[in-house]
Design goal:
Blueprint (H helix, E strand, L loop, with lengths): L12 H12 L13 H4 L21 H7 L23 E7 L2 E6 L4 H11 L7 E4 L15 H9 L1
Parallel strand pairs: 2-3
Antiparallel strand pairs: 1-2
Length: 158
Amino acid sequence: MCVPSYVPFGSSLSTVLTITTLTLLDVRYDADTPALSFDTLKSNAVVPKTVIGEAPEVSIGDARRALQAADVSVDQVYRTPWYNHNAIEPHATLALWTADDRLSVFDSTQSVTRLAATMADVFSLKPKNVEVLSPFVGGGFGGKGGMWQHTVLAAAAA
């Protein structure tokens, strides 16, 4: 490898070596057709074991039989455009380690049990050693059902 004989002012030697190394890389890749159609990909979908700690599918009753027995039924496909969910209330977390193996999390979550289980998993703790308190959720509107990155970061930083 050819290392430059000068180091620019304000740069470290490691920065110069990184940049020099990057110039020596020969990146190659094969172009492929992107998989973008939900309808096309759906036939190859794999059902996960859990979704945010709960069963991925819930079946109650026999819808097919109920529809066949109904006096009137409507069979129609409705489509809506994509929307990005942006809750207006803030997502906030405070985290406190009360012992090496005990974590308390104050979070504006709608899913205290799932959040506690996930935090226990992330930090290799016993689930009973993670306490999640959620005294103020705000409007919720479904945006606080899962765990967001800032919750893990708050606990890691604590």
